[in-house]
Amino acid sequence: MRILTVVGARPQFVKAFAVSRELRSAHEEILVHTGQHYDEELSDVFFTELGIPEPEHNLGVGSGSHARQTASMMTDLAALVDEYDPDVVLCYGDTNSTLAASLVASKRDVELAHVEAGLRSYNREMPEEVNRVLTDHVSDLLFAPSERAIENLADEGLTEGVHFVGDVMYDALLWAREHAPTRSTILDDLEIEDEYVLATVHRPRNTDSIDRLETILACLADDPRRVVFSAHPRTLDRLEAHGLLQTAERKLTVIEPVGYLDFLTLQTNAAAVVTDSGGVQKEAFFLDVPCITLREETEWPETVAAGGNVLVGADADAIRDALEDPPTAPSTAEPYGDGTAAADVRRLLAESISR
Ligand code: UD1
Ligand code: UDP
Questions:
Q1: In the chain, where does DSSP find H-type helix?
Q2: Is the shortest distance between the CB of 10 and ligand 2 below 6 Å?
Q3: What would the pLDDT profile of 302-341 be if each residue is shown by its tens digit?
Q4: Same domain as 143, residue 10
């Protein structure tokens, strides 16, 4: 079986790490990096430290408007589908790279498989929600990370080709949890000795609104503990534009994004995680670290139901309350599978393509 895998943004490298290991043991994979993320700390570091094979192609799309970015990726991906004639195009998650791959594959004589199918925030203002809904509706194989995701798909009339596999990020985390303690020096590098809070913010809803960003920063700055703030380039840019960067740097430990093993180490040892990231909410849940989510809704509602995650939006009182009295997860449920999702993806792809 020949698989053309499309990745482009940070969380997709983590997901592809888990699945590519499985696929390459028995099949031919052509890995295509769209170049949506291109900074060393958002891209190369993941390939190097996780040993992800060098992509066969990097489309070098770079940053830009959604339309330009998606259109440019589509043009190049269509040419690669022609060139390689794969049995299946495999895409992950909900970024513009996902949408570009799915639109191209859906108009070609090739199967389209979507890992992380069925997630919904039910907030169409998020570009990711549009990307994931459209991708699911043109996919032939829909690999769902949770039972809830399968219900979401059924509500939209999608029942064929749908499989529960669990979350491939859990597979990646289980590997990294084993290797991070000997490979990461981040706690020493940052001279962390006392309790600290770990924060990430990158959703446009938070970064592009000065009110929301200022509120979030003020709440973090007021916390008596040290706050380590991993700043996505979009966030750094917005902090600067809103005139908030100096305050942030004075009150918080603002760091450039770090590699996956360093970030997992920071999450594992944090007193609490404050984030608007999808992947980070889940990782905090897997690691049993209280998560305070700077959003009004989540596509990972199981983490909230289990008690380990609380949605606070950018409401100052709610953020402060959660920092003072963080959520704890009493449940031992495994709503996202048992860490063998990637093997299921490999098996189901092979079964479907050989038919
Ligand atoms: C993208 C995804 C988002 C995902 C996130 C993971 C879309 C619509 N959004 O958001 O779902 O959660 O990746 O991190 O696909 N930039 C750099 N260097 C880079 C990449 C980006 O400086 O290597 C800056 C550019 O100014 C760019 C901005 O970050 O305009 C946003 O990048 P983009 O890829 O458009 O969206 P993300 O916010 O990263
Ligand atoms: N991550 C990382 N370094 C950082 C911040 C995040 O390695 O400095 C990892 C994190 O562990 C998770 C993924 O990036 O695996 C989440 O990606 P992101 O928050 O960018 O996107 P989302 O999941 O919200 O789409």
A1: 10-24, 44-50, 66-84, 96-106, 127-138, 147-155, 168-183, 186-189, 204-207, 210-222, 233-241, 245-251, 260-269, 278-287, 301-305, 316-324, 341-354
A2: yes
A3: 999 999 999 999 999 999 999 999 998 776 778 999 999 9
A4: yes
pLDDT tens digit string along 87-121? 999 999 999 999 999 999 999 999 999 999 999 99
pLDDT over 80 at 123, yes or no: yes
Residue 138 lies in a domain: yes
Ligand 1 and 303: CB distance under 6 A: no
82 and 156 together in one domain: yes
Whether residue 312 lies inside any domain: the answer is yes
Q: What is the CATH number of the domain that holds 297?
A: 3.40.50.2000
Residue 355, pLDDT score: 59
Same-domain status, 163 and 252: no
Q: Is residue 124 in some structural domain?
A: yes
**Residue 320's domain spans which residues?**
176-324
Catalytic, out of 33, 37, 57, 202: 202
Kindly state whether residues 120 and 147 are assigned to the same domain.
Answer: yes
The pLDDT of residue 332: 73
Q: Which residues of 67-93 are buried (b: 16+ CB within 10 A; e: fewer)?
A: eebbebbbebbbebbeebebbbbbbbb
Look at residue 329 and tell me if it is in a domain: no
Closest ligand 1 atom, CA of 39? 23
Active site residue 137: no
Q: Which ligand is closest to the CA of 36, given by its number?
A: 1
Ligand 1 atom closest to Cα of 202?
Answer: 38
Dist. CA 111 → ligand 1 center (Å): 27
Q: Is 233 in the pocket of ligand 1 (CB under 6 A)?
A: yes
The ligand minimizing its distance to the Cα of 49 is 2
